[in-house]
Amino acid sequence: MFLDPLRPSPDGDLPGPVLTEITALYASNHVFHALSGDFPDPYGIRPEQVAAELARELADPHTEVLLARGEGLLVGIAVTLAVHPDPADPDPWIGLLMVDASLHGRGHGRRLAELVEDRLRTAGRTAVRLAVLDDNTTGLAFWTALGYTAVDHRRDHRLGRPCTVLRKPLTAPATAPDPASGPAPGPDPA
Where would I find the N-acetyltransferase domain in this sequence (predicted)? Predict the structure, then answer.
């Protein structure tokens, strides 16, 4: 899986095939959208609605929309915010992380989260935050299993929905030893 930043045309339009892919991804997650209330009909998400949502996200110069691709397919999407509207909040945020619902339970969400964390870590960031809607127990379980801990409870900025704010320090990624270099060194016997 790799991340591909979404880059609209200079006039703000998304290529038709890309918008079709993203719309299908959003539409596959109707359970989440029923909880979030982001779309009037979570079972009838249309391309123009997705285009408007992405345009709203990308209007903020600190926002990046990342498409997660694997084997030529759109697997997921992540939206990150490098600077939070609250100046007292120094951490970047994950505003959305969504995997195609037909692929849930296969580790793609975990991998996508790791790729986003690695991207933020490479940019010199030391922690990341996100908010989970209070009634999204599946989302809360997912993020806490990845090492995120609750640091606050508040309403989201856009729609005023009650949320749990989670934070995770971004420590160095764990690296597996290279099998070609032999066994990992053990403790010094001296």
Answer: 30-171
C-alpha 53/C-alpha 47 separation (Å) is: 10
In a domain, 187, yes or no: no
Q: Which pair of tokens denotes residue 169?
A: 């320090």
Each residue's pLDDT tens digit, 5-35: 988 877 778 888 889 999 888 899 888 887 7
> CA dihedral in degrees (175, 180, 182, 186; nearest 10)?
-10
Per the CB < 8 A criterion, the answer to whether 32 and 98 are in contact is yes
Q: Is 188 exposed, middle or buried (0-12, 13-18, 19+ CB in 10 A)?
A: exposed
d(CA 21, CA 136): 25
Contact status, residue 127 vs residue 102, Cβ threshold 8 Å: no
In a domain, 13, yes or no: yes
The domain that holds 114 is classified in CATH as 3.40.630.30
Domain total for the chain?
1
**The whole model's pTM is what?**
0.83
